[in-house]
Amino acid sequence: MSEPIIRVSALNKTYEGGFQALKQIDLDIQRGEIFALLGPNGAGKTTLISVICGLVNATDGQVVVDGFDNQVDYREARSRIGLVPQELTNEAFETVWNTVNFSRGLFGKPPDPGHIERVLKSLTLWDKRNNRLITLSGGMKRRVLIAKALSHEPRILFLDEPTAGVDVGLRREMWDVVRQLRESGVTIILTTHYIEEAEEMADRIGVINNGEIVLVEDKAALMRKLGSKQLALHLHEPLDSVPPALAAYDLQLAANGSELIYTYDASRAGGAEGQESSTISALLADVEAAGLVFKDLHTRQSSLEDIFVDLVKER
Q1: What is the side-by-side order of every strand in the sheet holding 228-235?
Q2: In what residue span(s) does the ABC transporter domain sit (predicted)?
């Protein structure tokens, strides 16, 4: 595997009052991936991004961005990063073109109208280039923030809660924009507390809670490893208790005794679909042998939300 584009090592951040916002964070971000940092409000997501971007100094530890230490080689490290903050802090009476062009200049980059044009067109802002920011919708203002972050051609883009407070339609539009950016070679790190955002977008997911990285995992592997499945049998006649003959399956009664729930997971089933199927076949045969009649059955797989809630609860 190639050298990670961001390497965070033994990172701590303690504020003056003694509050420790980050605790011994170790994290590698791979080149070209979409990495979702997931956590409840106040978990340390924004603090971690701020430290990596060099906006907040760590108490101790190291951050290396594309080979440059973000303290020793601050300008080099920072020039590789585009940051889209949560807050809309644009100059209300400035035009879209001037705002984005000015951002490029802040990084000491020579004027490049062709690049600014490409960025604006990719974000469907070209027709709005001469509009003042105050006249734009909330969604368009978000796009301007992304355009500003891309103005100096960064290799890494941080999106801090990119779709907080926007409607579902706009959220999906933003997801499309992020995918296009990744296809163009930009590494994307997004923080979110919307589980569906991480589930929809990310290649890998990190979970942060109380300033600690609880877990970092490939999304598919995470859902396979931790995502339990349930089989619900809707019974013809309700039961008071699970028959002793079915004790081996660890079944639960639900819906006032009219549902039998069998929970199984990939790790227990060895991750093999065939093994799961044979266990379920045996269960159904044993249910019939016990004289139970069911009128319907359905399966449900736990979502990333269930997994996330369980992880945070464990901590």
Answers
A1: 252-254, 259-265, 228-235, 294-301
A2: 6-235
Task: Note whether 163 and 170 are within 8 A (CB).
Answer: yes
Cα distance between residue 119 and residue 154, in whole Å: 12
- The pLDDT value recorded for residue 168 is 77
**C-alpha to C-alpha distance for 45 and 139, rounded to whole angstroms:** 23
First to last CA, the chain: 31
* Residue owning tokens 């997501």: 45
* CB hemisphere CA count around 128 (13 angstroms): 23
Helix (H, G, I), strand (E, B) or coil at 58: coil
How far apart are alpha carbons 73 and 91 in whole angstroms?
Answer: 30
Question: Vertex 245, ends 244 and 250: CA angle to 5°?
Answer: 70
More confident residue, 284 or 307: 284
Domains and CATH numbers, the chain: 6-223 (3.40.50.300), 228-302 (3.30.70)
Q: What is the pLDDT of residue 277?
A: 66
pLDDT tens for each residue of 226-272: 666 788 899 988 899 998 888 888 888 888 888 988 887 644 444 44
Query: Alpha helix (H) ranges present in 32-132?
Result: 45-52, 74-79, 96-106, 113-122
Question: How many CB atoms neighbour CB 264 within 10 A?
Answer: 19
